[in-house]
């Protein structure tokens, strides 16, 4: 029972499962005070972007209000958010970083 045999002994299809851990989008939010260069530095330092990539994403956040800066497993996403929030707070910038299930 449970592996293909129904109540009356009829075949019951079980959907094939693929290991697929939930992924989380890490997002940066715009604000009026955090310097652009600081945001670029964050993206290089914690998200492994080149200077050009970082500058482009920073401008997207600045213009659109927010942008996804990476997609990670729960643990990695949580670590990224903490690193950005801690680093920003230490430098007294109001930059906000959040995560959301994909
Ligand atoms: N809007 C900020 C400024 O004009 C720059 C900025 C970009 C701030 C992205 C936050 O996530 C951010 N200095």
From TrEMBL:
Entry superkingdom: Bacteria
Keyword line: Hydrolase, Protease
GO biological process, one term: protein catabolic process
One Gene Ontology MF term: peptidase activity
Signal peptide positions on this chain: none
Pfam families referenced in this protein's UniProt entry, alphabetically: ClpS (PF02617)
Domain Adaptor protein ClpS core: 20-98
InterPro entries associated with the record: ClpS (IPR022935), ClpS_core (IPR003769), Ribosomal_bL12_C/ClpS-like (IPR014719)
Family: Belongs to the ClpS family.
Subunit structure, as described in the record: Binds to the N-terminal domain of the chaperone ClpA.
Function (record text): Involved in the modulation of the specificity of the ClpAP-mediated ATP-dependent protein degradation.
Listed name of the protein: ATP-dependent Clp protease adapter protein ClpS
Gene designation: clpS
